[in-house]
C-alpha cells in the first residue's frame, strides 16, 4: 500500500476509483459508530415522515427498494418540498467512456407539481380511498396525491380526514407492508414470540400499564386472548405467571395482521386489499402501537438477547452477493424455501366482524387512571435502517429506554423490524401537530429526476492491479467477479444527488436558500459514503446539510455530479484506508474471514 493514499494509481480517474473501491467493499460495514440525528429536530422529522408516506412499492418492486430524498421547509406561507427521484442506476450498455475519462451523471431535470394544492381532489381521494382500482403509482403521481391530501386536512374534519388518510396510505403500501409483516414473523425461521417463550421469565418484574382502548381495540384484545382483567376500564398487568400468555396474544394479533395484509404465495398475485381488510389491518396496527410498552418490558428481561441471538445464528441465511474477503468464498448454500405463515382461517375476522369492530362508534369511555408507566399519544421518531425493509421508530413518551443497551443488538433488530410495520401509521399520527399549519399554507412541490448514468467501463486488468497494490487480499477470480457484479449495479444515491444539486445551486444563486441548514430526509438511513459526503460538503461551504443518520454500510457508489474534486479525492482516501485495513487484517489471519453484510440501500 502506498504511504500516501492519493498516490495509489488505480483506474486513472478519481470517480472510477471511488466506484471500484466501493464495489470491492460493497456490503461491508465501516467500523465507526452509527450516528443518529437529534430527536428534537422538528424540521427533519417532518421531512422524514413525508418520505415514509412516499414509500409504497408496486407490483414490480413490492419492497420499494428504490430510495428517494426530500428537502423542504414549512413556513407561515407555504410547505415547500423538493423530492429527488430514487437512486439512479447505470445504463445497460457500456458507453464509449473509459475508466480514465468516465462520463458524468446526468445534470437532472427540475419540474413543478402544478396541482399539488388541489384541495377538492385531496378531499375526493380521502372520501373514495377504497374505490380506486389502480394498483401502481409512479413516485411523481403519488407525491402529487399525498400533497393534495395535505391541502385538504383542514379543521373541523381534520381528525376524521387523518383516519381516512391512514386507510388510504396503508392500502397503497399493502405489498410492502405485507412483506414487512412476513419478515418480522420469519426472520428467525420461526415466530419471534415462539422463540421468546423459551426464555426463563421467572425474574421478570411485575408491572401494570394503564392504556386507554376503544371498544374495537378492547374486542380485538379479547379476540387475541391477551390476559385481561375482568373489570373495565382495563389495567394491563404482566408478571411471571402470565408473560407467556402475553406472548401468545401478540402472536395471535400478528397472525390477524398478516391475514389482512398477506404476502402472495405465488408472485405476482398481489390482490388489492378489501375495505374490510384495510380497516382490520389498520386497527391491528393501532393496537400494536398501544401495546409497545408491554412488549418492550418483556424484551428487557435478562436472557432475551441471548435467546434471540441463538435463534438468529441457527436460522438459515442466504448468501450475499457482496464482495468476499479473502478470495475464496464460503460454499454456496441453496436458498431455503420460505415457510409460509399463513393465518389460520379459523382465527381470521369475518368481513362483517371487521366492519363492526373498527367502524362502530364507541359508546363507552375506556380511559383509566394513570398507573406507572403512563401511555401517551405515539410521537415517534423514524429513520431508515441498513435493512432494506426496516424503518426504525422509537417511542419518546412511553417511559422506557429510547435505546436498549449496546449489547442488545438482537432485541434492537426485532424492534426495528416491528417498527417498520408501524411506520406509515406513525407518519400519519405525526401530521396531527401540523394540521393547523397545513390549513393556512400553500403547497409548493418540485420533483428532481435524472437519467441513467453512462456505464463506467470495467478493465479486466484491474485484478492484477489490485493484487499488486493490496497483496494481502489475494484476490481470486470469484471474488473479482463479485466485485464486477457490484460495479455494474453501482448507483448515484438520491440524497447524494440532492446534496450536490443544492450545493451547486447555492454557489450559482445564494438567494435560493434562505437558511444555512439544509435538512434532507431519505427513505432509508444513508450509507457511509453519503454521510461522509455530507460532512465534507459541510466543511467546504457555508451550507450545513443534515441527514437522518447513517448505518455506515458501504455500497457500490457513483459520485454525484458537480462534487468538488478535492472532496472526491478525500472520499477515495477514506475508501483506500478501509481496504488497506482489510488487507492488513487478512494478512494476519490464517483462516477465512467473512465480514458482516449490510443489505443494499
From TrEMBL:
Q: Where is the composition biased (Polar residues)?
A: 90-101
Name the species this protein comes from.
Lentinula detonsa
Per the UniProt record, the lineage of the source organism begins with: Eukaryota, Fungi, Dikarya, Basidiomycota, Agaricomycotina
Q: InterPro entries this protein is in?
A: OTT_1508_deam-like
Q: What is this protein called?
A: Uncharacterized protein
Which top-rank group of organisms is this from? Eukaryota
Annotated region (Disordered) at: 90-119, 319-344, 360-404
| Regions of compositional bias (Acidic residues) in chain numbering | 376-397
Which Pfam families does the record match to this protein?
OTT_1508_deam (PF14441)
Q: Residue ranges under compositional bias (Basic and acidic residues)?
A: 332-344
Amino acid at each position: 500500500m502506498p504511504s500516501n493514499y492519493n498516490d495509489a494509481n488505480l483506474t486513472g480517474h478519481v470517480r472510477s476509483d471511488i466506484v471500484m473501491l466501493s464495489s470491492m467493499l460493497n456490503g461491508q460495514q465501516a467500523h465507526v459508530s452509527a450516528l443518529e440525528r437529534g430527536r428534537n429536530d422538528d424540521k427533519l422529522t417532518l421531512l422524514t415522515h413525508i418520505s415514509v408516506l412516499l414509500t409504497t412499492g408496486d407490483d414490480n418492486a413490492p419492497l420499494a427498494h428504490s430510495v428517494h430524498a426530500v428537502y423542504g421547509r414549512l413556513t407561515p406561507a407555504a410547505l415547500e418540498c423538493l423530492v429527488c427521484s430514487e437512486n439512479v442506476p447505470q445504463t445497460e450498455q457500456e458507453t464509449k467512456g473509459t475508466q480514465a475519462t468516465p462520463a458524468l451523471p446526468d445534470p437532472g431535470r427540475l419540474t413543478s407539481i402544478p396541482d399539488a394544492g388541489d384541495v377538492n381532489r385531496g378531499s375526493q381521494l380521502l372520501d373514495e380511498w377504497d374505490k380506486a382500482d389502480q394498483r401502481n403509482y409512479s413516485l411523481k403521481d403519488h407525491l402529487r396525491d399525498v400533497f393534495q391530501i395535505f391541502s385538504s386536512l383542514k379543521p373541523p374534519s381534520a381528525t376524521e380526514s387523518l383516519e381516512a388518510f391512514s386507510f388510504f396510505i396503508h392500502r397503497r403500501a399493502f405489498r410492502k407492508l405485507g412483506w414487512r409483516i412476513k419478515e418480522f414473523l420469519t426472520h428467525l425461521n420461526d415466530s419471534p414470540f415462539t422463540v421468546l417463550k423459551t426464555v426463563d421469565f421467572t425474574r421478570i418484574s411485575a408491572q401494570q400499564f394503564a392504556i386507554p382502548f376503544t371498544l374495537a381495540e378492547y374486542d380485538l384484545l379479547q379476540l387475541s386472548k391477551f390476559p385481561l382483567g375482568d373489570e373495565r376500564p382495563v389495567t394491563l398487568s404482566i408478571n411471571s405467571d402470565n408473560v407467556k400468555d402475553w406472548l401468545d396474544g401478540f402472536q395471535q394479533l400478528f397472525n390477524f395482521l398478516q391475514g389482512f395484509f398477506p404476502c402472495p404465495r405465488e408472485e405476482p398475485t398481489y390482490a388489492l386489499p378489501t375495505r374490510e381488510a384495510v380497516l382490520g389491518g389498520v386497527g391491528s396496527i393501532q393496537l400494536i402501537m398501544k401495546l409497545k410498552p408491554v412488549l418492550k418490558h418483556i424484551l428487557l428481561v435478562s436472557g432475551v438477547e441471548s435467546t434471540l441471538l441463538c435463534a438468529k445464528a441457527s436460522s438459515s441465511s442466504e448468501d450475499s452477493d457482496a464482495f468476499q474477503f479473502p478470495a475464496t468464498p464460503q460454499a454456496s448454500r441453496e436458498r431455503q424455501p420460505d415457510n409460509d405463515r399463513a393465518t389460520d382461517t379459523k382465527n381470521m375476522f369475518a368481513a362483517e366482524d371487521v366492519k363492526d369492530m373498527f367502524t362502530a362508534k364507541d359508546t363507552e369511555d375506556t380511559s383509566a387512571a394513570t398507573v406507572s408507566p403512563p401511555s401517551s399519544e405515539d410521537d415517534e421518531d423514524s429513520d431508515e435502517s441498513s435493512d432494506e425493509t426496516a424503518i426504525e421508530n422509537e417511542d419518546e413518551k412511553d417511559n422506557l429506554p429510547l435505546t436498549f443497551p449496546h449489547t442488545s443488538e438482537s432485541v434492537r433488530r426485532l424492534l426495528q423490524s416491528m417498527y417498520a410495520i408501524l411506520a406509515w401509521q406513525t407518519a400519519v399520527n405525526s401530521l396531527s401537530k401540523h394540521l393547523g399549519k397545513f390549513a393556512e399554507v400553500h403547497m409548493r412541490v418540485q420533483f428532481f429526476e435524472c437519467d441513467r448514468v453512462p456505464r463506467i467501463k470495467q478493465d479486466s486488468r484491474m485484478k492484477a492491479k489490485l493484487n499488486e497494490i493490496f497483496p494481502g487480499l489475494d484476490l481470486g477470480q470469484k471474488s473479482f467477479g463479485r466485485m464486477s457484479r457490484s460495479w455494474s449495479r453501482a448507483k448515484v444515491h438520491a440524497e447524494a444527488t440532492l446534496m450536490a444539486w443544492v450545493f451547486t445551486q447555492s454557489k450559482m444563486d445564494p438567494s435560493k436558500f434562505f437558511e444555512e441548514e439544509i435538512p434532507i430526509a431519505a427513505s432509508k438511513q444513508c450509507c457511509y459514503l453519503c454521510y461522509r459526503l455530507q460532512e465534507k460538503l459541510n466543511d467546504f461551504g457555508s451550507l450545513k446539510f443534515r441527514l437522518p443518520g447513517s448505518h455506515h454500510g458501504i455500497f457500490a457508489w457513483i459520485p454525484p455530479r458537480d462534487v468538488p474534486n478535492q472532496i472526491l479525492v478525500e472520499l477515495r482516501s477514506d475508501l483506500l484506508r478501509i481496504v488497506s485495513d482489510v488487507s492488513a487484517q487478512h494478512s494476519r489471519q490464517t483462516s477465512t474471514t467473512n465480514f458482516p453484510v449490510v443489505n443494499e440501500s
